[in-house]
Amino acid sequence: MQFSEAWLRELVNPALDTAALVEQITMAGLEVDAVTPAAAKFSGVVIGQVVSITAHPDADKLRICQVAVGDAEPLQIVCGASNVREGLKIPAALIGAVLPGDFKIKKSKLRGELSFGMLCSEKELGIADDANGLMELADDAPVGMDIRDYLALNDQLIEVDLTPNRADCLSVEGIAREVALLNDMPFSVAEITPLTIEHQETLEIKISMPEACPRYLGRLIKGIDATAATPLWMQERLRRSGLRSLGPVVDVTNYVLLELGQPLHAFDAAQLSGAIEVRMAKADEPLKLLNEQEIKANTETLVIADAEKVLALAGIMGGSESAVSGTTTDIFLECAFFSPSFMMGKSRHYGLHTDSSHRFERGVDANLQARAIERATQLIVEIAGGLVGPVTEVVAQAQLPVRAAITLREKRIKRILGIDLDALIVEGILQRLGMSVTKDTEGWQVTAPGFRFDIAIEADLIEELGRVYGYNNLPQSSLLMRSALSQAPEAILDIDQLKDVLVARDYQEAITYSFVAEELQKSIVPDDKYIKLQNPISAELAVMRTTLWCGLLQAAVYNTKRQQGRVRLFEAGQRFLGTDAAQQEKMLAGVALGSVNPEQWGEKTRKVDFYDVKADVESLCALTGREVQFVAGQHAALHPGQSAEIKTLEGQSLGWVGMLHPTLEKQLGFDGNVFLFELSQNVLLGRKVPVFNGLSKFPSVRRDLALLVAEEVSFQAIKQCIENCNEDLIKAINVFDIYRGQGVEQGYKSVALALTMQDNTQTLTDSEIDAIVNKVLGALSNNISAKLRD
């Protein structure tokens, strides 16, 4: 919200300079982002009037002007502007004037003719970025007056960054109300006198969706002059609020929007057919908007329509077909209240964000419409003339917001603010806030005004008291909190320990959005059910992620496109499953691509592969003290030949590890293999508490076995088969060689195992050892068809 300080001070003028006023507003919760001059620095420019014009003898496009500037004799100034004419009043820079950019005006000759100054445009004065000719001033502008004084250019533009709950300050009147409140002084508002009704013609108004639009007003104004010039004072106020002049009718609706905070819209009455109806759009109804964007409205969009077509997106933007133009003579002026809960997110669905939608989404006073339409009517008739018709108002009283009384307890104020506020101070602040206050035994019953949508509970009222009383006036005290340290079970691993392991293995932690693009979500895990956001920040952040891979892959792509050939990232965060009530699950995920190690002289560069990332996962599992198994499986996001589901020995799923599917790799823009893992924290953090075992004083025995097994049999299957023999004397099972080639049948492989056996109570005998080995060989033969190699 940007506004002119001079405009604000016309409504309320506290005895504060600009810096103090800005500080006061900021400390009250309306943070000021910027304070800038209303115009660039210049001097020596006065109001001039062109007395006469003669053609330049040596230049077709130049004119020799005699310009009155308040001196006894007019000045001769050579000008090439296309709009220069006799009687025109314009800014005239005199000899010695300094224009923006330190441009000094001197006596000069243009094609042999003397020029004693310069006639200026808005651009040359630094008050506009572009101009099509000289700046034309009003006919009653006093000749010779300094243009800075006439246009009040010694002004400051204050830009306030409002939080979404303070929609009441999205107007100059709202800011003035706040400043008056803080300084305990009155403020003035625009004097609005309803005009005499000069004709009785009306348009029928129908509301088909009263829950979305419980109040709609409209009136016909006939015989306006749409080509009339908007007064300079209004143009300047619009400019200083960041809006440009677009003609008298549009300028008035924009001006009332800034002044009162109520959006309005004017239709060309000649383009309307039949009754005006506020209804839901039909599927794919076409509409060309004022910004030339062509849309097809969906059935969840509220529109303003006549008997034949859609005229506007309600509360967002009007259509170009029914817009006011230079040939318009009759207008239909509308003013409505739209429910904030219904308006939220509707404009962003069409890629729009307008001043109107910004206000309606946050909340407009439901009692402001009648005042706003009368103010707009008054200004339109003053500027463009016209005959005023009666206001047609349709109200669904039951659907209008009702403000319930809030109980404010005196003891609660002291408990939260830490200060005893006198009852008179409390009542005074609440009343200045526009609230209805009634005393009761515990404190007060308070009813918030219609323009304060953010006041709903007792805490809101106490916040207002603290804000207006002044945060700097509240006592400072150190917080005292007594708490007992809770037990930290040894069986639960801290996630930070797992993060430290990954960091030690050269990963870097990333934090990505929980919201992702719907297309990316579908491509990575097409079978997962996900939650769509009703009011997304953008189309790229439209759904809740069901896997952390979405954000990590995007981060990896971002890095590789910036010449980072080696990327190793991990993230600990939530994933969200389901469509309605989301099931949240904490996950730990990682992505790795590029070389295993940074480039160095001591080792050849090698690309990361499946087993490198598998080793990273195993290092995490080792910290928990629990053994896991990697079972070949299929995952939509992973390469079918290089993916595995990670399970505990009890069969509980821990997560997945593997190489990114080639289709996704190409789709996302990677130029090499990408490896991923994702683990459930709920399973991973369950730690097996270590138990001390003393060293045996009896020797261990090793037996080596060379087994012939089918090519598809994994070491995990062999190990599991041996462990299922339940031989406690087997202390370790290791693979020390795998052979394929001469002497081994095609489709088979030789796996060399080392079995380590030991008894804590005695030295093992050969017969005991042979019995264990034979039991193992029998189990291997029966379960996986393994046999000893000759």
Can you walk me through this structure?
The protein is an alpha+beta fold. The protein has 21 helices and 39 strands. The strands form 10 sheets. The chain has a 7-stranded mixed sheet with strand order 27-30-31-35-34-33-32, with helices on both faces. Strands 3, 4, 5, 6, 7 and 10 form a 6-stranded antiparallel sheet that branches. Helix 5 (232-240) crosses helix 6 (248-260) and helix 20 (715-723) crosses helix 21.
Number of strands: 39
The CA-CA distance between the termini, in Å, is 87 Å
Class per helix and strand makeup: alpha+beta
Tally of DSSP helical segments: 21
Instruction: Assess the beta-strand content as a share of residues.
Output: 25-35%
Helix content: 25-40%
Strand count, sense and barrel status of the largest sheet are:
7 strands, mixed
Q: Going across the major beta sheet, what is the strand order? A: 27-30-31-35-34-33-32
Low-confidence sequence ranges: none
The value of Rg in angstroms is 39 Å
Shape summary: elongated
Mean pLDDT: 92
Summarize this entry quickly:
With about 800 residues, this protein is of the alpha+beta class. It starts with a strand and ends with a strand.
